[in-house]
Amino acid sequence: MNEYFRSIILQCTGASSLLEKEVIQDLWSGYGEIMRIELKHAAIESVVVKHVQLPQNKNHPRGWNTDIGHQRKVKSYVVETTWYDTYSKNSAARLPNCLAIERKEDEVLMVLEDLDAAGFPLRMRSVGWKEIASCLEWLAKFHASYLGKVPSGLWEVGTYWHLETRPHELEVLEDQRLKEAAPFIDKALNECVYKTFVHGDAKLANFCFSENGQVAGVDFQYVGGGCGMKDVAYFIGSCLSEKECERLESKILDTYFEHLQNELQEKNEALEKEWRLMYRMAWADFHRFLKGWSPGHWKINTYSERVTAEVIRNL
To answer: What's the CA gap between 47 and 83, in Å, rounded?
Structure first.
């Protein structure tokens, strides 16, 4: 990390010195890294730093080294800084406090609260119903916080897989019925009456858990406008088997909407009715992306195929 960015971290934390303790993870396709920074003589012991460095050579792990992909990632970091600057403080759902944002040439620095130190040290590869319910509550709080808001400076349409940003994946999609239906599915989701901000990448890996089952969310590169069901369907697909997705579908939706209605000032039955109908539409939308992007992906299963076929029939 360059000396200028080190000075920004010292300044915003009041620390006398810092130590780059560990790399938590590299950013997708070589666009930088997330680090834990240990602080000396500061009010807090550590911070997490997201350090974005645009690569000279694009190195996508699945070979999608296109200018569209590069521009999408570049915009995603602009969106994330706007999110922390302008919108994050209004979230009822727990997320890291942002201490500083700095840009210098083709690098971006985000200095964030260390959620491990704040009581959310657990990351889970598999979860039971208790953890799923906690994440659904988090999503409900998040969506309720931004219901009806205009995503100025964010993605107009949230999520990293929405149709407009994925022309190459659609072009190579071999499922012809789904290919033809894709614009209509996209249109239905984009034109729903009730819109909020969606997290846009609400997979299990982007949730941090406390010992007592509370949850916090991270990674806001793909926040934007849309139907909350996009996050719910995507989250469920990230942590449940196809049998569980089917068996628990009603319970998932009932739990999410119970939390959502509790967060709203007044019960909104029209919103719930519309979004319940959008759940499978959102599932089919992500399925379209996945089949074009990585046809052998483990998330492509008989439940997804059945749901998508039903959506197409009902268009």
So the answer is: 19
Q: How far is CA 127 from CA 94, 228, 260, in A?
A: 19, 22, 22
- What distance in Å separates the CA atoms of residue 276 and residue 99, rounded to the nearest whole number? 37
Average pLDDT, the chain: 94
Q: Residue 155 and residue 78: Cα distance in Å, rounded?
A: 10
The residue type of 185 is: I
Q: Which amino acid is at 224?
A: G
**From the CB of residue 269, how many other CB atoms can be counted at a distance below 10 Å?**
9
CB distance 204 to 216 below 8 Å: no
Burial 164-185 (b: 16+ CB within 10 A, else e): ebbeebbeebebeebbebbeeb
Percent of the chain scoring above 70 in pLDDT: 97
Question: Hey, CA dihedral for 174, 178, 182, 183, is it positive or negative?
Answer: positive
> Are 24 and 35 within 8 A, CB to CB?
yes
Residue 61, pLDDT score: 45
Which H or E run contains 207? strand 207-209
DSSP label at 97?
P
Tokens 């953890």 sit on residue: 131
Domains and CATH numbers, the chain: 3-113 (3.30.200.20), 129-314 (3.90.1200.10)
Q: Taking Cα atoms as reference points, which of 196, 206, 153, 188 lies closest to residue 278?
A: 188
- Listing DSSP states for 36-54 in one string gives EEEEESSSSSEEEEEEEE-
- Summarised one tens digit per residue, pLDDT across range 99-141 is 999 999 889 999 999 999 999 999 999 999 999 999 999 999 9
Least Cα distance to 188 among 280, 267, 290 occurs for 280
Backbone angles phi, psi at 85, to 5 degrees: -65, -45
Alpha helices in 60-124 (DSSP H): 67-82
> Picking from 68-77, 151-160, 176-185, which range would have the lowest pLDDT averaged per residue?
68-77
Instruction: State the Cα–Cα distance between residues 128 and 116, nearest whole angstrom.
Output: 21
